[in-house]
Write a structure and sequence with these properties.
Helix content is 19%, strand content 42%. It is of the alpha+beta class. The protein starts with a helix and ends with a helix. Keywords: Signal.
Length: 199
């Protein structure tokens, strides 16, 4: 009887640990191309999975706090903004995203905690951006309430920061895709700063 209970506990633990790595079917795919701009942070053009039709762009401003915004194409409507700041060398940003359901702007935050943990809090959701252990090329966006993987990205380029490509897969319509775009941009910015100061 005891061995059955132990086995059941182990099985439950394994299920909890490994369930999040099995994402839902892919809803949408994107190819993100990033390129360094003089006196600006990396800017990103976001295409369909084939890399043909541009659907969004992440644009930044001059200065140390670039405050990027996500612009939809072809309408060129701004659908998300980010106000960047660093507190005690840790990233703390304020995001504002146009909710496609309510057509209202909703504010939230994206912040960096210890180690490589990045969190997004928006409209009652809490998302954690994870990296595979020993792999800095993959990002996973996990819903912290139910453990579901909402999206992931895979870096495809040879150069670390100045010219980057990401394959992005979205597995849920729960959140606007702009959240994942900003999360990738912030993760790239944090990694660049950590590298420059030797982490």
């Amino acid at each position: 009887m005891m061995s059955i209970r132990v086995f059941s506990c182990v099985l439950l633990l394994v299920t909890v640990i490994f369930a999040p790595v099995n994402p839902l079917p892919t809803v949408r795919s994107y190819l993100i191309k990033g390129r360094f701009q003089l006196m600006r942070s990396l800017e990103f053009a976001i295409f369909d999975a084939a890399g043909v039709k541009q659907q969004y762009r992440i644009e930044s401003q001059f200065g140390t706090m670039e405050n990027p915004k996500v612009v939809a194409y072809p309408s060129k409507e701004i659908v998300a903004t980010l106000q960047e700041k660093f507190v005690n060398l840790m990233y703390n940003g304020i995001i504002s995203i146009l909710d496609p359901t309510s057509d209202e702007w909703i504010s939230g935050k994206i912040y960096h905690k210890f180690l490589d943990d990045i969190f997004i809090e928006w409209n009652g959701h809490r998302v954690r951006i994870l990296r595979k252990k020993g792999d800095d090329r993959s990002l996973f966006f996990r819903d912290e309430i139910n453990g579901t993987i909402l999206a992931n990205s895979e870096k495809k380029s040879k150069f670390k920061y100045f010219s980057i490509k990401y394959d992005v897969k979205v597995f849920s319509d729960e959140l606007p895709d702009a959240i994942y775009f900003l999360g990738i941009a912030v993760a790239n910015e944090i990694a660049k700063r950590q590298s420059s100061r030797g982490k």
